[in-house]
Amino acid sequence: MGLTGRVVRPDDPGYDAARRNYNERFDVRPALIVFCQSVEDVRNALGFAREQGMPLRVRGGWHSYEAFSLVEGGLVLDVSDLHAVLVSPDRRTADVGAGAQLIQLYQRLGQLGLTLPGGTCPTVGIAGLTLGGGFGLTSRRYGLTCDCLEEVELVSASGEVLVASAGQHPELFWALRGGGGGNFGVVTRFRFRVFPLEEVAVYTAAWDFERMGEVLAAWQEWAPPADPRLTSVLKLYGPQHARPGPVTSTGQFVGPLEELRRVLEPFLRRAPPHQLRLERKAFLEAVNFFGGDPEPDWSVHFHGDHKKFKNTSAFAYEPLPPEALETLCAWMEKAPTGEDLVQLENFGGKVADLAPRATAFFHRRAQFFLQYQAYWSDDSAAEDHLSWVRGVRDALTPYTRGAYVNYTDADLEDWPERYYGENYPRLQEVKQQYDPEDFFRFPQSIRSPGGSMVDSR
Ligand SMILES: Cc1cc2nc3c(=O)[nH]c(=O)nc-3n(C[C@H](O)[C@H](O)[C@H](O)COP(=O)(O)OP(=O)(O)OC[C@H]3O[C@@H](n4cnc5c(N)ncnc54)[C@H](O)[C@@H]3O)c2cc1C
To answer: Which of 103, 122, 231, 269 has the maximal Cβ count within 10 Å?
Structure first.
């Protein structure tokens, strides 16, 4: 079977740009990168990889934390040229090409006064984000990104074009809502429900390092049950972090400024910040405020400062007890630089409206979500950052549960349990039905029942 679409090989001038990943920790050299421009190109690339027995990876927005969308010596099937967004304002739906970046979607919908609950980083791909769940600053109001799906068009391992929805291939549709990217086929198009949203209110607050324990204690009691129109983020940095931190909180409220002030009051009364700002913003302004101004050119895959990093995550189902708060503050004191951080984000609201087994996204009952993040440029610093980020995660493991599949962490040996909890066996059944040979395979891909957990490639 011949390859169609835009094919980039190692000798081609665009090869190095085409094999990049947002996380520059990786240097992977695929044999072929196929930019598909149609469903037919996708089918041909799958057929080619199968005939040649080549390892295959599917790629959308290039933001996999562990570069799972690239493969050494294999074929990368890239859908980023499939980024059309067609909105039906009357039906309040959007048909979105699987290669769209979030900013393309926010801008297109924003022109019509509409939005979709997606992530914060403007260049993250809609495909990876949605397939793993997708959480952002309007999720407590409207749900996870995957909760807004009406249907998904996908090319299966056998080359069949399927549409999964509540009425067609319902088990596959269940699995595609939180089961993680790259597992069941190549998604070419999503249909989402979208929501009217013109304006939001946002806040930022900051505290000194010495106040960290007090702020944490106040935030974790206040934020999870707070008004579901508010999503609140708490960022903890090391003491060397430049002001206004090292403890900061930001959030977005789908409602008027005065109501946001009232919702914040119990938190700020318990932990008064040294800096506080509340503002109304047009929704698209708020997207840029939280995500950084987008590049003018949509073909740019990344924006802003991106370097080498290791991020990992966990969910808190209960408030952290006092000894865990002390442990967390002690680890922040030891952060290698002022750039490494732990970020907390409240769950609940609309995310918790569905049961943990209603879709493949399991961690709906979590009260908040923790991200442990380390960044560096110089390889000689890598070990310090890696051991810090693993250390803080392990120190808090007794008090937390699971991990977020979109914050893929190759170190996690018990990833099926952490990412999927009780949903893993059902995901394996879906894998058996739609990809019994594990054709779509990467180090943490869902395995057909009885399949090996060790990746041979
Ligand atoms: C800076 C940054 C900010 C982030 N912010 C958020 C956030 O606010 N909220 C949140 O929920 N997540 C966030 N994430 C995590 C993000 O959701 C994941 O990294 C996601 O997997 C990225 O998807 P992608 O398409 O960009 O990446 P890719 O590297 O292209 O793909 C990621 C995974 O999805 C698979 N995949 C990609 N396209 C397809 C397709 N068409 N069909 C089937 N499988 C496919 C790949 O095989 C791979 O396994 C962030 C990540 C980064 C790096």
So the answer is: 231
Q: Is 82 in the pocket of ligand 1 (CB under 6 A)?
A: no
Q: How far is CA 102 from CA 85, 108, 110, 118, 157, in A?
A: 11, 10, 12, 7, 27
* Domain at 6-78, CATH class: alpha beta
Domain boundaries, the chain: 6-78, 85-196, 199-399
Write the DSSP symbol of residue 101: B
Residue 457 has a pLDDT of: 44
Query: Closest ligand 1 atom, CA of 118?
Result: 9
CB 65 within 8 A of CB 313: no
Among 35, 131, 289, 409, say which to mutate for ligand 1: greatest number of ligand atoms within 8 Å of CB.
131
pTM: 0.96
pLDDT at 222: 98
Contact 243, 205 (CB under 8 A): no
Could you please state the CATH topology (level 3) that the domain comprising 199-399 is classified under: Vanillyl-alcohol Oxidase; Chain A, domain 3 (3.40.462)
Closest residue by Cα to atom 15, ligand 1, is: 406
Structurally, at CATH architecture level, domain 85-196 sits in: 2-Layer Sandwich (3.30)
pLDDT tens per residue, range 291-316: 886 655 545 556 555 589 999 999 99
